[in-house]
Amino acid sequence: MEDAESDVLMARVEWPESRVFDLREVIGYLPCNVKWANAMRFDPSDTEGKCLHFTASSKGNLFVIFSAIPDDKDSWYYVEISPRGVAIFKSQRLVVSTVDVSAVGLGADILYQSYFVCVKETSEHTVIEYGKSQGTTETGNVYLTMIDRENPQSVRFFSYGNGEETLEIVDSHIVPRSQTKANCKGDTSFDVASNMCVQSCHELCDPDRGCRRTSSSEPLATDCNACQYVKNAQTGECLEECPEDWEQRDHECYHHEPTSDLCLKNPCLNDGTCINLGGGKYKCDCHGVYGGNNCEKECEKTEDNQCCRFPLPI
After folding, report:
1. What is the pTM of this model?
2. For the chain, what is the radius of gyration of the CA atoms?
3. Whole-number Cα distances in Å, 158 to 37, 76, 77, 95, 119
4. 52, 176 Cβ separation under 8 angstroms
5. Which of 78, 112, 273, 286 is the most buried (most CB within 10 A)?
């Protein structure tokens, strides 16, 4: 590179943040300007849990981070609140999300919105609830819930972060979960058994694993984090059972074309016979002096019919 080209912008690569709420497998953005302090401790391990209430203003994304070990990003849970959707991440990977219009951030730096994030820990799981407060009260609406049963983290610190735009936080305080009177709104509904708002996913989703809502309309069978029964291995859609003539392996369905279709698509030439090998494969049984994958070669055959020892003389 020439000296004149140093410190010159040569190229720029961008990945739209809105794509976070469209993809099945997502590695999330890491929050910027995350600062940890002894004063920002958080202990949700009592029987009812704790809620972090705060008021925020940002033109872009804002993050609420909870961690067991602040320097270890794999121990982070964080809630991303953007004007396009809300997502909860664990170890930088998307777990649940919503694009409900009432749940998203304002996307304006001159307007303030009050939020709350509640965390409850037991020996079996960690529950995170996201919602918006009504004014300066401890009353509000829950829009998203994550239940983590796979090696849940025991968080002890919290912090805030931002994306590309500046963030202002005021009136940050912690109260017991019992003091936060919340209604179930958006993609959530009240579950009597757990006595909390749970995410409303498609009926074929595993109810314990949640979903990543990509639409504000009816939940889709492709939004599930895990399926209750089986899954289409190609599309990711949850199914009640595998279709007829499909193969099931480890709760996944694989489609293989019938033998007749395979042999019609890949006909064996020169009176060769098509043999279905399963798994989407076939083999031609060649006759006479013909060989090759489709009996297309006139030659002296090897024992497996697939190659010619040498071409026959013309």
Report:
1. 0.69
2. 28
3. 9, 9, 10, 19, 11
4. no
5. 78
